[in-house]
Specification:
It is built from 16 helices and 14 strands. By secondary structure, it is of the alpha/beta class. Helix 9 packs across helix 14 and helix 12 crosses helix 15. The chain starts with 9 loop residues before the first strand and ends with a helix.
Length: 403
Amino acid sequence: MIPNPNPTLTICKVWDDDYPWDVRVEKIAGALTTEGHQVHLAARNRLRIAATESFPEATVHRLRPWRWLPASLDRAAMFPAFVNPRWYRHIVRVARQAKADVVLCRDLPLAPTSIVAARALGIPVLLDMAENYPAMLQSRISTGRRGPLDAMVRNPALARAVERWTLRHIDGVLVVVDESAERIIAAGVPRSRTAVVSNTPPLSRLSGPVAQQARVAQTTVVYLGIIEAQRGIATLLDAMEILRRERQPMRLVLYGDGVDGALFRRSAEAQGLTPHYVEFRGRLPNPVALKELATAQIGVVPHWKDESWDTTVPNKLFDYMAAGLAVVTSDVTPCARIVRETGAGLVYRDRDAVGLATSLRKLQDPDIRSAAAARGRAAIAETYHWERDVERMLRLLQSVVGT
């Protein structure tokens, strides 16, 4: 009998937050399930809801509430510290009951716990490094926003030490962009044990609504994502203030929310930008927000250029390209590289509101805008699509499991 070159696997996926929902968790679990594998998702349970729930992409196993504790203390005991005995027991229980072949942990906070749990079970473990976690913590600190417990639980130096240990003991790493792969290879992870599984959309997205780039009375600029200082929202509002003073027929719509959402709403109001020049739509269901992208003409990625954003890539970049928007991005390394290589839009220096306003003004020209948008969609069709990323993920998974 000829052995099956792609045998069915059972994956214990570890997610350090509540589920639903997270776009990358859903995409990866869904891709694995579509390929015939079984996915059991170990997740947090701050809402104290059902411990087990079935979704099309995975069976979710939430931490069982400790009813004998007040809810606030129960939630605190669920914190995804680098080493948490409660999480260890949960991962071992889920993986053992499912007869998992491999543990796939999302991001650094639970990576050490996942490694120890997987070793106890005698199975390999992979890390899905969706972001450079130590650099993300440092980026957050640079905004001046730091809570009393952050020195202990969100300490960049501690996170870097944990990451070094993790990379020495992990069996494989998924990263979201080439720059991240080169970083961990330089840290000692063999290239054969890494795979770029980016934040790209499926090819089916190209069949959805497409932005109309013909001349319009008012050009709509869109931002999709978390509202935080380090994501460049202040620069974006300042650029819109410049364009407002010039009487440029442009408006900005922001989809999403975050810790700085109220701050930037107040700022936009103080600048006289709302409601005619800037609209905050808040957090909408992802399918709704993606559909509404096609009502805009330009998508913007205004993130600060720092180690964090120089080693990751946001979903929004590819979402804009797939929806037929021209892109304006700050010069964070991965986004700038992709936009320049594909010709999908323009790049400006981060935190430079004048430069951002200049780029947006250039894209007022419908011919320039249309050409950039068409090149962006072509790049999705040819290169930056989820199906290609899934192929890389499956190759690494099969290699690590040894099938």
